[in-house]
Amino acid sequence: MRRADAGPVRGARQGRPTLEEVAERAGVSRATVSRVVNGQTTVNEDLRRAVEAAADELGYVPHAAARSLVTHRTDSVALILPESPNRVFSDDQFFPGVIRGVATELDAAGKLLVLMTTGSAEARQRAERYAVGGHVDGVMFASLHDADLLPELMIRRGVPVVCNGLPQLEAPCIDVDHAGGVRAAVEYLVAQGRRRIASIAGPLDMVAGRARLDGYREVLAEADRRAIVAVGDFTAESGQTAMRQLLADEPELDAVFVASDLMAHGALQALREAGRRVPEDVAVVGFDDIALASYSDPPLTTVRQPIAEIGRTMARTMLRLLEGGEVAPMTILPTELVVRESA
């Protein structure tokens, strides 16, 4: 029941207030309202106050959000990492490297980075509602898994998408030369005379995991060597577990190619526990060249992928896409073997 002395109750509006409605309420032109909400300083102070009062009465969203209504841009771009927060904010330096690269490019372009982790069904639903609801101009994905349907869903809903690691999507994809990097690493071990070369592969539901395992198997087949494989999940703990398994199954192995530096760090721990000397008894080569590789004991020979450049290239591609420019459907960044003391 409404009290008799209550003030007027504003009814719910159908849709957002428009520039035209603000202009009519303030008694000014639409152009004047546009200049005020875009922060221009060339408007007479009395007119500015009238526009601001009218916008407040109508519930018109001021400043940056108002400019978004006019330009249909939010000046923000999302980076979605389909992992849990615990995984993203762990000791895996891939994620901060990609985030740093993305943030650097977007900051230079005057855009806001919105970071989302979608390691659960609820988080994926929230990210979908946010992006499809027009709160960002586009979405970038990194660390994608095969079963993740969110990128394809957003593409169907008309959201601009750039991805890392899932080239079958109908969206620009940025990746690295997995095959070339792995070939350099495994051929290096073969050239050293290593006979029993094992591999700790990454998750096989990810392009990086499969591509690095395929590259390892291809080189070993060419060298008439038998593949010896255990599978991890790109964490140090999984590398340690996989290395223990390999030593139990193949005690005579004399080298191991590991699909990430973090897993290689775990493998080095397992080798120390087993009393195996690196590289005298077992040579170890990783993939990534994160900072940890230089400080491992011994320092890790590894394949360098340009992690920050992945992020920068994703962001540059997204910015070109948003401006209507042409973008390559696939961009492959180079990798290189960095030789240190572990092999």
UniProtKB/TrEMBL annotation:
Keyword Transcription regulation listed: yes
Q: What is this protein called?
A: LacI family transcriptional regulator
What is the superkingdom listed in this entry's lineage? Bacteria
State one molecular function term (GO): DNA-binding transcription factor activity
HTH cro/C1-type domain sequence ranges: 18-44
Residue ranges annotated as transmembrane are none
* UniProt-listed Gene3D superfamilies: 3.40.50.2300, lambda repressor-like DNA-binding domains
Species per Swiss-Prot/TrEMBL record:
Glycomyces terrestris
Protein keywords: DNA-binding, Transcription, Transcription regulation
